[in-house]
Design brief:
The complex is a heterodimer. Chain A has one domain (2-164): Rossmann fold (3-Layer(aba) Sandwich), CATH 3.40.50.2000. Chain A is built from 6 helices and 7 strands; from the N terminus they run αβαβαβαβαβαββ. Chain A has helices at residues 2-6, 19-25, 46-55, 74-91, 102-113, 132-137; strands at 10-15, 35-40, 62-65, 95-100, 117-121, 143-146, 163-164. In chain A, α5 (102-113) links the parallel β4 (95-100) and β5 (117-121). Chain B starts with a strand and ends with a helix. Chain B has 6 helices and 6 strands. Chain B has a 6-stranded parallel sheet with strand order 3-2-1-4-5-6, sandwiched between helices. Chain B is of the alpha/beta class. The chains are: A alpha/beta, B alpha/beta. The A-B interface holds A 9, 11, 17-23, 26-31, 34, 42, 44-45, 47-48, 70, 94-95, 97, 117, 119, 121, 123-128, 142-143, 145, 147, 163, 165-169 and B 7-9, 55-57, 59, 74-80, 82, 104-105, 107-108, 110-111, 146, 148-159, 161-162, 165.
């Protein structure tokens, strides 16, 4: 019982490279004190997360890359899905957080089945409507946020609705 | 130095060509670009130094060296410019020209147009005039530095969720 009280929570933060990743890292202080596991599509980000952990006196994070794929690259998507499944089985995070796109969608869907709590922060790039991956992953996430107040509650209430709690910028 | 980035996923020939044309007319300008993979058919600039993809470490260095950023209206480029206090000229990709899967960059450009340090070129014709105008301004128009982290409200919402679960 004491173990469950003192054991740090494990959070897997996942996003494709570029804008989704830049937004995800802007939320990093929210999981200070947790054991972070980062997953993205570009190997070059590894040094960035290690340097940030050193500067902010956080434990050295785990870092994985998966294959990049867009929604039309079916074979690559399947390989990406398998990579993400393997990482989740190996790391067994308590939480999974994502800003998008396909890797986040996959990670949230699988993590839920493994019993993790899931967080979807819709990309700020989607100012007029929620992202496609967010519309699919959001309704089953435990915490679902949009970064635009006018999009909060814009989804069919029966499927739940995202909240607005500020933005990364 | 002016740093051009169109992200890594898709080329953005209208913007890349507009910058190349401006360089041809302004040979003393120093421009470096990440233009994504032009493939065999895509546009290859003749008047500035470019690569298809620049690794994050070098990308950061180029970004820091630049005194003006030119970019597609992608959030990664905009946020990176704002956190480093670099003025940025953005041009939105258009879905009907197959530059992106939808027109979300038009909305992004509209919503960030009022931010100090962010300038919007709505089309390729206005890129050159914008570049000349910004270069003539002190500090290229300047840009306030954005904090490296999300809004306190957003951080607290996520933190509270993690702590309460």
């Amino acid at each position: 019982m004491s173990e469950s009280v003192t054991k740090p929570k494990r959070i897997l933060a996942i996003a494709s490279g570029g804008g989704h990743w830049v937004q995800l890292l802007r939320m990093r202080p929210a999981w200070d004190g947790c054991v972070p596991i980062y997953v993205t599509t570009q190997k070059g980000y590894r040094e960035q997360v290690f340097a940030d952990a050193r500067e902010s006196h956080q434990p050295t994070p785990r870092f994985y890359t998966v294959l990049d794929a867009n929604r039309w690259q079916k074979v690559r998507l399947v390989r990406q899905l398998l990579q993400i499944t393997w990482i989740l089985l190996r790391e067994r995070p308590d939480f999974v957080i994502s800003t998008g796109a396909a890797p986040g969608f996959f990670a949230l869907k699988i993590a839920r089945r493994l019993g993790a709590r899931t967080i979807w922060i819709d990309s700020i790039a989607n100012a007029e409507q929620l992202s496609l991956s967010g519309r699919k992953a959001g309704p089953t996430a435990d915490l679902w946020l949009t970064q635009w107040s006018h999009l909060a509650g814009s989804i069919d209430p029966e499927r739940g609705r995202p909240h607005y709690e500020g933005a990364v910028v | 130095m002016i740093f051009l980035t169109v992200g890594t996923q898709l080329p953005f020939d209208r913007l890349t060509r507009a910058v190349d044309d401006w360089c041809a007319a302004n040979p003393s300008a120093h421009v470096v670009g990440q233009i994504a993979d032009p493939g065999s058919e895509g546009f290859r600039p003749q008047h500035f130094e470019w690569q298809s993809f620049i690794e994050p470490a070098e990308f950061d260095q180029r970004f820091d060296e630049a005194d003006l950023i030119v970019a597609h209206a992608g959030m990664g480029s905009i946020i990176t410019a704002l956190t480093r206090a670099k003025p940025v000229l953005i041009m939105p990709r258009r879905a009907n020209l197959r530059e992106h899967r939808n027109d979300h960059q038009l909305a992004t450009a509209d919503r960030f147009a009022d931010r100090p340090g962010v300038h919007v070129a709505h089309d390729e014709e206005s890129v050159g005039p914008w570049l000349s105008r910004l270069l003539a301004m002190p500090e290229r128009g300047g840009s306030p530095r954005l904090s490296p982290f999300a809004s306190p409200q957003l951080l607290e919402a996520i933190r509270a969720f993690i702590q309460s679960s």
